[in-house]
Amino acid sequence: MGLTSNSSGLNLLRESFNIDSEKANAVIALAGNPNTGKSTIFNNLTGLKQHTGNWPGKTVTQARGYYTHQGDEYTLVDLPGTYSLLANSSEEQVARDFICFAKPDATIVVVDATNLERNLNLVLQVAELTDNIILCLNLMDEANRKKIKIDIEGLEKDLQMPVIPTVARDGIGLDDLKDVITDIVTEKIKVEPTIIQYSPKLEAAISQIEPDLEYILQGRMNARWLALRLLEGDKTILESMEAYYSEEIIKDINAKLEGEVKASGVL
Ligand SMILES: Nc1nc2c(ncn2[C@@H]2O[C@H](COP(=O)(O)OP(=O)(O)OP(=O)(O)O)[C@@H](O)[C@H]2O)c(=O)[nH]1
Ligand SMILES: [Mg+2]
Questions:
Q1: Predicted ipTM?
Q2: What range does the domain containing 86 cover?
Q3: What is the pTM of this model?
Q4: Which InterPro entries does the record associate with it (predicted)?
Q5: pLDDT truncated to tens, each residue of the chain (267 aa)?
Q6: Which DSSP letter does residue 80 get?
Q7: 76 has which bridge partners?
Q8: Coil, strand, or helix at residue 192?
């Protein structure tokens, strides 16, 4: 069990994202490309019990709400629509930071079934950051209308994650979605998604720094994912870590890794 499993520490982090730690129920995030039906799902699940405001320090709107399923209450967070999690915009940074630091108990990536290839990019990025991922294949009515056939079982097998087809506008498939969320939160199912393997040179560089990161992070964040960000020279993740973690962790990362990241020769 890493430090993030320490509930008071995690609750403090979640509070910084306006998540009510008093409620202490499971937190579910809705991620996805713009216009894929996230808010439609959010509204359907939460009804009128929703709160809106801005994300801390950003003008990006935050919506969070609650729903009950099989007797348990869930907090649902509607993340801004993004094509990636590489923090190139405020929206991407909000989505990335929420998944990274508020550590939702499950993240649903809502994808447009008529545009699967483009949407899968974000699915693979989220899978690098968290194991607790569900792919929601929305707009299935549009896909059927366009005669697009999707091999759902094949997709589940290739991605090693639950895939739920939905027509959110008509409420179709949303009960299945809630069932899978519950299965993940109650650990009835354990998801271990397929992770992208990079070039041998990059994989060698990752293996060089990942163990140290693993040691420093103590389960707070996915070490392989952070290794990739450091290797590509992403400063925004260090800034966010400064905002959400203690100074010691940042100092350790800077001290232990500056040499190693450079020595890996990837930069
Ligand atoms: N045909 C069809 N339309 C849908 C479905 N789900 C949502 N929509 C429509 O798609 C449009 C976009 O839905 P939103 O829920 O606003 O999408 P979003 O992902 O929240 O969009 P952003 O917040 O801009 O990223 C709306 O007009 C919805 O009514 C669906 O399953 N089928
Ligand atoms: Mg929306």
A1: 0.99
A2: 5-186
A3: 0.91
A4: FeoB_Cyto, FeoB_GTPase, G_FEOB_dom, GTP-bd, P-loop_NTPase
A5: 333 334 567 777 788 788 877 776 899 999 999 999 999 999 999 986 677 777 777 777 788 899 999 999 999 999 999 999 987 898 999 999 999 999 999 999 999 999 999 999 999 999 999 999 999 999 999 999 999 999 999 999 999 999 999 999 999 999 999 999 999 999 999 999 999 999 999 999 999 999 989 988 888 899 999 999 999 888 899 889 888 887 777 777 777 666 666 666 655
A6: P
A7: 28, 65
A8: coil
Please, are residues 42 and 30 in contact by the beta-carbon 8 Å criterion?
yes
Which tokens belong to 30? 């809705």
The pair of structure tokens assigned to 2 is: 């890493």
Asked if 111 contacts 33 with a C-beta cutoff of 8 angstroms, the reply is yes
DSSP state of 55: P
Q: Which stretches does DSSP call E strand in 114-242?
A: 133-138, 163-165
- Cα–Cα dist 111/123, whole Å: 8
Tell how strand 61-69 and strand 72-78 pair up: antiparallel
Q: Residue 36 has which token pair? A: 């894929």
Ligand 1 pocket member 40 (CB < 6 A):
yes
For ligand 1, mutation pick of 38, 39, 40 (most atoms within 8 Å of CB): 40
138 lines ligand 1 (CB under 6 A): yes
Q: Note whether 77 and 176 are same-domain residues.
A: yes
- The CATH code of the domain that includes 12 is 3.40.50.300
Structural domains of the chain, count:
2
